Amino acid sequence: MNPGDPASSGRDVPRLVGGLTKPATSRVAKLFRYVNRTVVELSSPDAAEMAKLLENIFRNVNIALVNQLAMLCERMGLDVWEVVDAAATKPFGFMPFRPGPGVGGHCIPVDPYYLAWRARQFGFVDRFVELAGDINVSMPRHVVELAAEALNSRGRSIKGSRIGVVGVSFKPDVRDVRNSPAADVIALLRERGGEVSFHDPLIDRFKDAGGHESESQPLASLVETSDLLVALVAHRAVDWQMVYERAGLVVDTAGTARHRNLRTDQVLLLGSGWLPAGGDSSGNGGN
Amino acid sequence: MNPGDPASSGRDVPRLVGGLTKPATSRVAKLFRYVNRTVVELSSPDAAEMAKLLENIFRNVNIALVNQLAMLCERMGLDVWEVVDAAATKPFGFMPFRPGPGVGGHCIPVDPYYLAWRARQFGFVDRFVELAGDINVSMPRHVVELAAEALNSRGRSIKGSRIGVVGVSFKPDVRDVRNSPAADVIALLRERGGEVSFHDPLIDRFKDAGGHESESQPLASLVETSDLLVALVAHRAVDWQMVYERAGLVVDTAGTARHRNLRTDQVLLLGSGWLPAGGDSSGNGGN
Question: Which element (helix H / strand E) includes A269?
């Protein structure tokens, strides 16, 4: 299943069934055929579990790959969002992933480590799981660096600044906060002396990784009172137009600032840099 | 473009255009619109080049990811081909890649290193490119290990054995041998004293990585005279049915042995093990 995607939870998603014996597999598959249109019989429970892990690891690795590219693009003065959009025009052999403040949910940041743990029992180091984890886990720290860079451009420090975080769930348009990278971003900002509040249209209360719990604030007052906004999740229910009209300084990690009329040095975009970049960021990509 | 795929080379594949100035981009885009249905204008040549590199790195990394999983599945007694097929039933968020003896062609094994080289000039180590390269480059050695394991099961060594390689191009159904992993597999087998011949329906002569050149042999005589066959490329023009009816011992790195009636201990499959595995390898995966 795919939280937030109604099409992913129903009858049309294939079900993998692997039993300890062929008759067991057949009987369980027969049962599931009352529920799912497609039931795939596998040779063992291990094969079914590995297929599930492969799907999770595929996403974990490809998110990490684009997060690494985002950090490289920042150094090179390129816009990773433009690059991914351009690559995504390829009609075969490519699947686009976008950068962000890290990975969350109950699968992607968790399941790969089951496999890495089990692999070690076979004397095998799962180097992709280790690398992807290392990069994705480090993204909240990178977001904090961007926040420090943005505030620095105004002669401010994190310490003593009012920082408004927009979006705390683990991905857009879901109420799920399990393993959300927002918990790390907010805790790290508070550790450095930032006065952090948040708004999320779907979440009322949120506890950061340091155990500090707070309530969602109205968006308009958050925008008005913050020295810096940090956009973490591109919820559709957020009035981003209003955010970018009124906010003085924004770190955008979710692509919400793209294709807008922005003031000079208003937005620092993850994987890119200060917007607008020569008018290109809003004007490119046409066909 | 995608060698071997006629649909990929024509008008329907979008063209990315990034000029040094906006007017230059517009004029070149206008020209290409006579050729390609979709022309995407980017902010710079660098952005266009990075998009091309991202497409190549995506494939390089995902092939390496499944190659790593293949080696892990061998240790765990699982069949990576079954696992990938099962994961590929997921209708969203997944793209299947299959394992093999390495990567070839004029893009995937080459272009990522341009980026890694350039990244270092910005003080940035592209860890994914390094890891993916390391794994994919090591696959020919792994194939040689499988060949040694297969021959060992018959009390034989690579030295003195007649080994027939089927397929030397860099991927199925193309005549392109640039950077083909077959060049490394064959050279490594010859270094160890193997007497290597090859058959490829699309390639007449082939030079291995050690500079030894030889001619394609008729498939039937290769099958008859070899102590071991190594299937490297799943060309459709090869009579695989005949191969598996007549060959005594095969290392399959291309999935050509799957879903066939095989004799016990006839085939050692990359990413899996000895086939048939309890009758599962040919009987699984139904729905």
Answer: strand A267-269
Q: Rounded to whole angstroms, how far apart are CA atoms B116 and B256?
A: 35
Contacting residues of A for B69, CB less than 8 Å apart: 50, 54, 57
Give the distance, in angstroms, between the CA of residue A266 and the centroid of all CA atoms in the same chain.
Answer: 23
Residues β-bridged to residue A206: A214
* Angstrom distance (rounded) from CA A280 to CA B233: 45
Check if A287 contacts B (Cβ < 8 Å): yes
> What are the tens digits of pLDDT across the range B7-48?
666 788 899 999 999 999 999 999 999 999 999 999 999 999
Cα separation values, B105 from A129, B111, B272, Å:
27, 10, 26
Span A139-283 CATH architecture: 3-Layer(aba) Sandwich (3.40)
Q: How many other CB atoms are there within 10 angstroms of residue B242's CB atom?
A: 12
Contact partners, residue B274, CB within 8 Å, separation at least 6: B265, B267, B268
Which of these, B213, B210, B256, B266, lies nearest to B233 by C-alpha position? B256
How far, CA to CA in Å, does A83 sit from each of A57, A70, A246, B28, B167?
23, 10, 28, 19, 36
Which tokens go with A176? 């799920």
Q: Is the model's pTM score more than 0.90?
A: yes
| Nearest-angstrom CA–CA distance, B267 and B247 | 9
**Closest CA relative to residue B143, chosen from B132, B131, B151, B153:** B151
Q: Report which of A183, A170, A54, A178 is spatially closest to residue A103, judged by C-alpha positions.
A: A170
B69 touches chain A (CB under 8 A): yes
For residue B214, give how far its alpha carbon lies from the nearest alpha carbon of chain A (Å): 33
Which residues does chain B have within 8 Å of residue A126's beta carbon, measured at their own beta carbons? 68, 72
Alpha carbons A222 and A225: distance in angstroms, whole number: 5
- Contact B52/A84 with Cβ under 8 angstroms? no
HSE value, Cβ hemisphere, 13 Å, CA-based, for A88: 12
Q: Where are the beta strands (DSSP E) in B70-178?
A: 162-166
List, by residue number, the catalytic residues of B. Answer: 107
3-state DSSP assignment of residue A209: coil
Scan residues 226-255 of B and list those with Cβ closer than 8 Å to A: none
Averaged confidence pLDDT in chain B: 93
Contact B154, B249 (CB under 8 A): yes
Sequence ranges of the domains in chain B: 1-43, 139-279
Mutate: best of B8, B20, B41, B50, partner A, most A CBs <10 A:
B50
CA-CA-CA-CA torsion sign (A252, A146, A159, A209): positive
CA distance B192 to B185: 11
**8 Å CB contact between B17 and B28:** yes
- pLDDT tens for each residue of A212-267: 999 999 999 999 999 999 999 999 999 999 999 999 999 999 999 999 999 999 99
Residue B71, SS3?
A: helix
CATH 3.40.50.720 fits B139-279, yes or no: yes
User: Which of A90, A119, A126 has the CB atom closest to B55's CB atom?
Assistant: A90
